Amino acid sequence: MNCLQKIYFYSMDFSGKYTGTLWYGKGYPSSQQKSELSFEMNLKESDNSFVGIAIDTDGVGVSTDPATVKGIINGIHIEFYKVYKRRHYDDGNGNIIYEEAEGFPIYYEGTYNDETGYYEGSWKYEVARRFLFFFKIPVSLGSGTFRLKKSED
């Protein structure tokens, strides 16, 4: 199979159930950095765009709320936003605190690795803060890495 055939195959067969893991990195307390969070996503692709639902399943910072997922798949490249129903954070003692407001978008970007069978990449959790009432600047609340694989079932 040549490179063009691989790109066509990956972009045409994207809908389905996925399992993933993310690792916390910069912006998180040192005790949380490198910790894992496992999740599942059910995705429906149409014309290189996809939508779906993500559910945390295990690990540090698990939310009981589902998150909506919206993104694009372009060949072997993937980009998507995940937004939780409610904002949540770990209080530092392993307790998850929920707020009523919708969560801030979490941006994921990665590439399919043919050797591992995973989409692998990075994620970042940023918000826009107002500066001098006129300008918005992005402020990072944290970032890390992830990997995502289509389930066999």
Overview of the molecule:
This protein has 153 residues and is mainly β. The chain has one domain (3-150): Quinohemoprotein amine dehydrogenase alpha subunit, domain 2 (Lipocalin, Beta Barrel), CATH 2.40.128. Helix content is 7%, strand content 59%. It has one helix and ten strands; from the N terminus they run αββββββββββ. Strands 1-2-3-4-5-8-9-10 form an eight-stranded antiparallel β-barrel. A two-stranded antiparallel ribbon has the order 6-7. A hairpin with a 5-residue loop joins strand 6 and strand 7 (96-98). The longest helix has 10 residues, at 3-12.
Task: Give a nutshell description of this structure.
The protein has one helix and ten strands; from the N terminus they run H-E-E-E-E-E-E-E-E-E-E. The chain is mainly beta and 153 residues long. It has a single domain (3-150), classed as Lipocalin.
Compute the number of helices: 1
Please give the domain count: 1
Strand order of the largest sheet: 1-2-3-4-5-8-9-10
User: SS-based structural class?
Assistant: mainly beta
Q: What low-confidence regions span 5 or more consecutive residues with pLDDT below 50? A: 1-11
* Overall pLDDT score: 86
Profile the largest sheet.
8 strands, antiparallel, barrel
In terms of DSSP E residues, the strand content is: over 45%
CATH structural class: Mainly Beta
Principal-axes geometry comes out as: globular
Helix content: under 10%
Give the CATH architecture. Answer: Beta Barrel
The fourth-level CATH homologous superfamily is Quinohemoprotein amine dehydrogenase alpha subunit, domain 2
